[in-house]
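Milestone M4 deliverable, item 7.
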Amino acid sequence: MCFFEKTPEDTSIYFKDKYIWQCGDYYTKHQGQYPVIFLSFKDVKCSSWQETFQKISKLISLEFMLHNELESSSVLSSYEKEQYHRFASENINEVDCQMGLQLLSLLLHKHYDKECVIIIDEYDTPIQQDHLCDFYNEIVDFMRNFFSGGLKDNPHLAFGFLTGILRVAKESIFSGMNNLKTNSILDNNY
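Output delivered:
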């Protein structure tokens, strides 16, 4: 996240002594250039769909709150600011949450005039937990719409990353996405 994120401070100092910096301009030109949306689902281990949704809703709201520069943006309309405030104040329902990545990426793109990077860490944790607790259908339906809105054909997205332990399959929750590239620790590059 820190590598890509556009911040007022120069964060390149954290990377100049790392291997990535010696890989050349192809990689270093991306450093500090993007608005970043980061969500980690590592702690979304609940025993019901209601608890799972509440936790995911809270995570989405917290990410909106982290981008408080949108509150005073001179390029966002009053309606867009109203939407930002609604999400940041946790006044959102399930359909809103499904649109969370899509909306936040739109607002950040408009504010910065630069497409976003979306990073979802441990995307599969709620799916595994919900399978064990027998509300798999609810989480899969939610995640399918959530990921599709943020990661498929999103004109506000530069690129996105999903990390998890389950192999990404171009089916089920990812059936709406046709632009996935799967990298595994078993690949020689990694």
